[in-house]
Write a structure and sequence with these properties.
This protein is an alpha/beta fold. It has two domains: about 5-265, TIM Barrel, CATH 3.20.20; about 320-390, Arc Repressor Mutant, subunit A (Orthogonal Bundle). It has helices at about 30-50, 70-85, 105-115, 125-135, 140-150, 170-180, 200-215, 225-240, 260-265, 295-300, 320-330, 340-345, 350-360, 375-380, 385-390, and strands at about 5-10, 55-65, 85-95, 115-125, 155-165, 185-190, 245-250, 250-255, 270-275, 280-285, 285-290, 310-315, 335, 365-370, 370-375. Strand 3 (about 85-95), helix 3 (about 105-115) and strand 4 (about 115-125) form a beta-alpha-beta unit. The structure holds iron/sulfur cluster. Iron/sulfur cluster binds near residues 17, 25 and 63.
Length: about 400
């Protein structure tokens, strides 16, 4: 059977760093962006040689802000990808976009270059919240971007929202969620904010966040309580369900047949090749990462074998692979398939996980339906605990 491959291309540039962001992203002038695109094209050509037996069925331009690229740069990247890889005719090609960096012309150019799915980092429909997050775009630009994308021919649109913001009430979040539904995208991702070290948010709210993680909720805290976070999660699930969006992963909802195929690859442990600064790959039994500084990235010889440049090159043991299969698969609403477990590892799920399964089942955290094992609503609430038990 033909081997399938996902491609992830990292575009690390942003207009400015958002206050909560810990992604590998920074601002850069046009010269540097152009140099990066040229290097990325070389990397695509050079590394494609090593995966000739694969056919690409998903491509994802992530960042950073890939929509900061000029249309000719996107076109060039797409041309080089087409020349270098075998692409499935129905390949899903997603580009992340900041609503503040696109207009109708750019979106039309993206669509013409072959991008067929667009993912807008809207985050909130409350102006005050966007300013708090340090986003460059306005609420108005989000409405316009979605409308323009549709006019440009996109019929597969995602809206990203972030909840559990400082000062945010359930009502405020509900307003954003309803506006997202009103725009009728095919897909909505609803993530809870995580305050990461090294961000401006951590400088501002880090101490409070640390206490929260220890389970100490101070009175008058501006960060959401665990109870509020749970209410937001339940509200999201219920409201999106009523609007025809099925939850297929803890934070991801889609209309019928509009799940993000690329992200599903991560949760189903399918192979992908990461291209560009700091991108991660999963090929065969190996996981590894590209260089994370621009200086090293520009100097890397991608014709050489992966061992010479990869960071964190890790050959997964069978135990690693089984553990990953479980904790990634359980993120999906439908959970894992016992049959696929057997196909992948040649042993029954029950032989390895009988005890863990019984314990979680008694605790009401896990359920079974036919061939599937999945987390219950209660299990999702404490998903880290459940997934931890599956580590071998
Ligand atoms: S646009 Fe995205 S990647 Fe860029 S700084 Fe903001 S959150 Fe980070």
């Amino acid at each position: 059977m033909e081997k399938k491959l996902g491609l992830y291309l990292h575009i690390p540039f942003c207009v400015k760093k958002c206050d909560y962001c810990d992604f590998l992203s920074f601002s850069a002038d046009e010269n540097l962006r152009q140099r990066y695109v040229e290097k990325l094209c070389n990397e695509i050509r050079e590394r494609s040689v090593y995966v000739k037996e694969y056919c690409v069925d998903t491509i994802f331009f992530g960042g950073g802000t890939p929509s900061l690229l000029q249309v000719p740069q996107i076109q060039t990247l797409m041309d080089v990808i087409r020349e270098s890889f075998c692409l499935k005719t129905d390949v899903e090609i997603t580009m992340e976009a900041n609503p503040g960096t696109v207009d109708f012309n750019k979106l039309s150019g993206m669509r013409e270059s072959g991008i067929n799915r667009i993912s807008f980092g809207v985050q909130s429909f409350v102006e005050q919240e966007l300013r708090l997050l340090g986003r460059i775009h306005t609420v108005e630009q989000s409405y316009l971007a979605v409308e323009d994308a549709r006019r440009a021919g996109f019929d597969n649109i995602n809206i990203d929202l972030i909840s559990a913001l400082p000062h945010q009430s359930l009502e405020q979040y509900a307003y954003s969620l309803k506006q997202a539904i009103y725009l009728k995208p095919q897909h909505i991702s609803a993530y809870g904010l995580i305050i990461e070290e090294g961000t401006l948010f951590y400088d501002r709210y880090g101490k409070e966040e640390e206490k929260r993680r220890e389970g100490i909720q101070e009175e008058n805290s501006i960060l959401p309580s665990e109870i509020l976070e749970r209410q937001i999660y339940e509200y999201t699930k219920e409201t999106l369900g009523q609007a025809g969006y099925a939850q297929y992963e803890i934070s991801n909802y889609a209309k019928k047949d509009c799940e993000c195929k690329h992200n599903l690859k991560y949760w189903e442990r399918e192979e992908y090749l990461g291209l560009g600064l700091g991108s991660s790959s999963f090929l065969g039994e190996y996981r590894f990462q590209n260089p994370v500084t621009l200086e090293n990235y520009f100097q890397t010889d991608f014709t050489a074998s992966v061992e010479t440049y990869a960071l964190d090159l890790q050959k997964l043991t069978r135990e690693d692979a089984i553990s990953e299969f479980m904790f990634l698969g359980l993120r999906k609403r439908k959970g894992i398939s016992k049959q696929r477990f057997y196909q992948c590892f040649g042993i029954d799920y029950d032989r390895i996980y009988h005890k863990v399964h019984q314990r979680l089942k008694q605790e009401g955290m896990i359920a079974e339906e036919g061939d599937s094992v999945f987390l219950t609503a209660r299990g999702i609430d404490v998903s880290n605990y459940c997934m931890g038990l599956y580590l071998l």
